[in-house]
Input
Amino acid sequence: MNVSIPEEVQTPTCPLITDEDVLKKIGNTPLLKMQHVGRNYPNVEIYAKAEWRNAGGSVKSRPALQMILDGEASGRLTKGKTILDSTSGNTGIAYALIGKLKGYKVKLVMAANVCKERKGLMADFYGAEIVQSSPFEGSDGAIRLAREIYNKDPDQYFMPDQYNNDSNWKAHYNTTACEIWEQTNGRVTHFVAGIGTGGTIMGNTRRLREFNKNILCYALEPAEELHGIEGLKHMASSIVPGIYKEEELDGKISIATEDAYTMVQTLEKEEGILVGQSSAGAIVGALELASRIKEGVIVTIFPDSCDRCYVNFGKFKEYAETHGNKIPKADS
Ligand SMILES: Cc1ncc(COP(=O)(O)O)c(C=O)c1O
Output
């Protein structure tokens, strides 16, 4: 049957979304209040920023955009250059999205064990080129390989180097921390966030303390060197990012992989939200802090949702068993 569409409805009535509009959808994420998981601490409020609401689907869209804008402003990123960096996925997805909208090629180096959902988004959907490094060297292997590629042909590439780029933490200093201050009406007393590059914890800590010098800030770190919390780094066994300054923080809280994985399920059952492993780890850390302080307003970050990685602790253990207990390092 041949149905012709009447002329009056051929013109779309919904507003057209432009590239600029997509980039404006980075930042201003909702602050979620945890209603149930903190029930043992009635005088502590726990909140988390739903960073999957950024265009690009994660917290890393903020620094990726800032690094690209600052690269353009400084003249280091010009038309025809390829954006090159090491990333586990979230920053890569953000580079790939922003690069596509702004007309840059993007080349991403990551450990081969980064989950296929993330690689698929970057390569198949946004068209970035992926170079795989050793699954047993985690993000450090990816950092080394990206540097090698860059050094062979520096004129061809713009390498933001998220681990050493001040624009990374400044993205949080300029946006995330201000949102937290406003969304809590200045009531925030504690801030906790996982460490990957350190951008989130450093930028928020610096700005929140300008608002109120008494706010206490803690980094969350996987308890073991070989862990399964994608996105986080175990500092003692890693190349320490240049932008991460532990001495500025009030302390670190360790999170066991198994607790973070269990918390993914708890958050789904009790709060009705499906988050990624590092987000669940953030709540494990926030609850540990709640048990110490008994009173206060804790804010943390949910870097991404669960849609990018299949979370299954059984699979993690099964992999270790079938690979002589050689667990690939989770990546940042
Ligand atoms: C899922 C996830 N969680 C947490 C982080 C840590 O954020 P940051 O790099 O700002 O320390 C990252 C960073 O890549 C991430 O991908």
